[in-house]
Amino acid sequence: MKLSHSLCIALLASASWAGSAAAQGTTEAQPQPQAPSQRGGSGQDQRNVAGRGAAGAGVGPASGSGAAAAAFGGLGSSGGTNNYAVTATMTAGKGPGPGVPTPAPATTTTTSPLILPGLFTASQAQAALPLDRVFFNYGFFEGFAIRNSQPPEAFNLNIFNVGVEKTFFDGRASVYVQVPLLDATDNTSGQPINGLGDITAGLKAALLMDQDTGSALTAGFTISAPTGRASILTTTTSTQDMAVGSSTPQTTRINPTYLQPWTAGLLVLGPFFVQDYFGVIIPTDQQVPVFLNNNLIVGYQVYQGPSDALLTSLTPFVGAQELIPVSGRGDQVFLQAGIGILLHQKCLLSGSYITPVAGPRAFEGGMTAGINFFF
Q: Which of 47, 80, 158, 225 has the fewest CB neighbours in a 10 Å radius?
């Protein structure tokens, strides 16, 4: 195996931090079951004006809100209705005289936006090759925002990630562990983020491996444990009639484990390489949607020096990551460009810039830097 080339290639694909984890609330009127009413104490009159109160208040369905909620990792759909909803109901009832209905109490239910810190780390890709290494990565992402919130709810995110990977079975398989720390600055979202993120551990095995070129086909399984801050979902139900009004908030804590079976293929053709990673992010909480996670990296080694030189190789690369919510619309696509620098065949330095290009923009832009030591 060409050590310097393969090591650079394998690690560059694991530098992606594109996954987003902020959910966006929507305002959709929900149909209510029709109920019979009495007219002057006799007769039947059915009316369903669900949504009329919402439309009159200017809070009808938001453009693209359903797609945004699915894409940002919020609560999924249940029974064909979006869980982020504003509901207003008016039912005809007994009136002061025949044919004159009196509005019954109007009920409004609102759900706050949701942020899922666990997805910040669960959506990361893995390198195709099993490796012996310790590593540190840093990512900064500016302008995470819940787009339709008023006032705007946003934050900047710093991610610090420390990990180790160890091979076995003559280098054909490995186990890995990553420990992330999250720091959100200028956080106006009201959601707790700072502190330990979801600790990730996994296993990978090379199904096929070319020792001469470094090409490989690998399968693995990653678990992201719920060691980070729980997400706080607040639902407020308000009841208003002609006399009095009441408001009842309910708080739910959401912090699932994320399971991710994945496969990755690495093709090396001289100085050129391409790697594709495909995983399925499966949360243990049914309120959180399943995501398909696809990451493609293409690069070209522009320089390879002697094995005893300080600068062993120089490899620029470009990549794209797509997150696809299975339970709804709102695919997200992120582009990445960066470079890998291998020193003494033992230390890999990497850096990249990431920007969202399709779907709801989870953040304005991000930068990553990493260092890997091989043993």
A: 80
User: Into how many domains does the chain fold?
Assistant: 2
Shortest CA distance to 337 belongs to which of 360, 355, 357? 355
Placement of tokens 């909480």 in the chain: 285
Pair (186, 323) in one structural domain = yes
- Tokens standing for residue 190: 């009201």
Distance (Å, whole) CA 7 – CA 347: 10
The helix or strand, by DSSP H or E, that contains position 141, with its residue range, turns out to be: strand 133-146
Tell me what the mean pLDDT of segment 320-335 comes to. Answer: 86
Tens of pLDDT, residue by residue over 154-193, are: 889 999 999 999 999 999 999 999 999 999 998 887 788 8
Same domain, yes or no: 201 and 261? yes
Domain that residue 337 falls in: 3-21+115-231+255-374
Token code pair at residue 42: 């006799």
Alpha helix (H) residue ranges in the chain: 3-12, 52-56, 65-71, 118-122
Collapsing DSSP to helix, strand or coil, 57 comes out as coil
Residues 6+ apart with CB under 8 A from 225: 198, 199, 200, 201, 257
Burial class (CB in 10 A: 0-12, 13-18, 19+), 32: middle
* pLDDT of 33: 41
Predicted TM-score of the model (pTM): 0.73
Cα–chain-centroid distance for residue 206? 27
- Paired tokens of 100: 């004159």
Report the alpha-carbon distance of residue 225 to residue 204 in Å, rounded: 18
Closest CA to 188 of 151, 231, 160, 230: 151
For residue 300, what is the domain's CATH number?
A: 2.40.160.40
CB 126 within 8 A of CB 67: no
Q: What is the CA radius of gyration of the chain?
A: 26
Alpha carbons 254 and 286: distance in angstroms, whole number: 10
Distance CA 264, CA 275 (A): 7
Taking the C-alpha atoms of residue 194 and residue 185, their distance in angstroms, rounded to an integer, is 9
Are 184 and 45 in a shared domain? no
d(CA 108, CA 85): 9
Q: Is residue 68 part of a domain?
A: no
Residue 241 inside a domain? The answer is: no
3-state secondary structure of 90: coil
